[in-house]
Amino acid sequence: MTETLIALTCAHVLADFLFQNKWMVANKLRFGGLAAHGAVVAGLTALALGGAPWAVALTTGLHLAIDAGKARLAVPGLRAFVADQVLHLASLLAIAAIWPTALSDGLWPRLGPDLLPLLVQGMVLVAGIVLATRTGQFVVGLLMAPYLGALQEEDGLENGGAMIGLLERGLTFLLVLSGQTAGVGLLMAAKSFLRVGTANENRRMAEYVIIGTLASIGWALLVSFGTVALRNLIDMP
Question: Where are the domains of the chain?
Fold first, then answer.
């Protein structure tokens, strides 16, 4: 069941946070947008499991039902985002419980006896890095949204803040997985040093940056340690 849940989760993370574009998000209430996202979910789930058509069909159906409900009923924000992802995770747990051997009965183990452990290892790492970087971008962005109104507009690179966040979370993930956790402190110190001028000139901006940095790196640490713990739990090479 654990391996199947990992495969389902990896497919979900990729479908929601890497292969879902702005058009799909904006058109969730229209058939075209929902169908396009559903096709991505179905394709990635089938690829991850190596078959299992019934599991793929139920996963896709539940995913679209949750997304449609959120688009129609939820008020956009962090709470809606968290509730949406909790419901998705609950649906994946249910599907893994119904078809616990969906992954081991699929195509991939037939291609070689050693392929399945390597595949599961790869899916854990892929899901981990996407959760740490792209998912973290949404989480931190929604967390910081209420503070934006208190800031004065200032010039900067287009999407520069988002790119900095992706890089710092990605580096944090790599540092933790490589056992160099002390490097996370150096990363935070370096960013703080580079923003010292802003801290002196604009207290609101300084506080915004500090909160955002702590939230960003805190999220990356949580995902990174979770990834390490999961790899140890399933005794990966």
Answer: 2-110, 138-228
Task: Considering only residues 46 and 213, tell me which one the structure prediction assigns the higher pLDDT.
Answer: 46
The predicted pLDDT at position 89 comes to: 94
One DSSP character per residue, 34-80 reads HHHHHHHHHHHHHHHHT--HHHHHHHHHHHHHHHHHHHHHPPSSHHH
For residues 237 and 150, the answer to whether their CB atoms sit within 8 Å is no
Tell me, letter by letter, the H, E, C secondary structure of 81-130.
Answer: HHHHHHHHHHHHHHHHHHCCCCCCCCCHHHHCCCHHHHHHHHHHHHHHHH
Phi-psi region of 155 (alpha: psi -120 to 50; beta: other; left: phi over 0): beta
Judge whether 190 and 183 are in contact, CB under 8 Å.
no
Q: Choose the weakest-confidence range: 1-15, 130-144, 179-193.
A: 179-193
Which pLDDT belongs to residue 237? 44
